[in-house]
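User: Hello! I'm new to structural biology and keep hearing that structure can be predicted from sequence alone. Could you demonstrate with PhzF family phenazine biosynthesis isomerase? Please show me the input and the output so I can see what each looks like.

Assistant: Of course. The first part below is the input, the amino acid sequence of PhzF family phenazine biosynthesis isomerase. The second part is the output, the predicted structure written as tokens.
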Amino acid sequence: MKRIKVLHYDAFSSKPDKGNPAGVILNGDHLKETEMQELARKAGFNETAFPAHSDSADFKIRYFTPGHEMDLCGHGTIAAVYALKENGLLNEEKEMIVETNAGMLPIQLTTTSNELLVTMRQAEPVFKPFKGSKADLMASIGLAEEDLAGDLPIQYGSTGNWTLLVPVKELRAFERMVPHNERFPDLLKEIPKASVHPFCLETYDSAAHMHGRHFSSPFSGTVEDPVTGTASGVMGAYYKKYIAKNEETEISLIIEQGNEIGKEGRVRVKVAQDHGRLHVEMTGNAVFVKEFEIAL
């Protein structure tokens, strides 16, 4: 029996037990895929990240929910970079390339007076229309069709992982949300394994531009993700494409999430438009919480 050390970081917050928790296991090169999946299940985080050697990038990261492997995970990436940095496994370079199943992603490190900020380029955003029942979709998160912001489209979006972006009219509706994740695959006929990400333009924090919640696909083995980096990135792209479409070529947003479940965090998103193509960058911080061991 092996004992594997797990590092617990909370991403998108500087306060322990806020933001989005992630596990990081640093000896990914020595683990089989089945072992990674088992460790992620036992660790119990929405995602556990496994940094490993890469022949074509500075390093590679694989991401596992308790139920399956993910191509990309924003908060898992930030947690992994923090863990590598704080354990002396990164050099002093401020820019690096990370290999993921979603492609090669540039990472930039910025040190401020009191924290390390990690900026990751996400995959180019892709959108697809939702063609299902709006009433059934809203019922699956405990709301009514009248809660939709009718002037904005419901769209599947991806900057590495598919999620369904659902525009909601008022912030107060988020307190009433109750996800029925088991219904999602039948409702999301175009992309049955997508998650559901309701959002609105009202916020708790006057400095924020968008508020969201993130309800997981039932295949992931989790119910809700507290603060979601990849979904925040595609929210920023949605904002640029459908809301701020006539504004400047580059926008910077603060996206808040996690307030309803006591895990509030913030994601900084920058979206630049170049010859009709959108480029998305997501920035966040993290804080070490604790380490523990899992028997394998």
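User: So the tokens describe the shape?

Assistant: Right, they're a compact way of writing down the 3D structure. Reading them back into a model, for example: Helices lie at 33-43, 74-86, 134-139, 184-187, 229-243.
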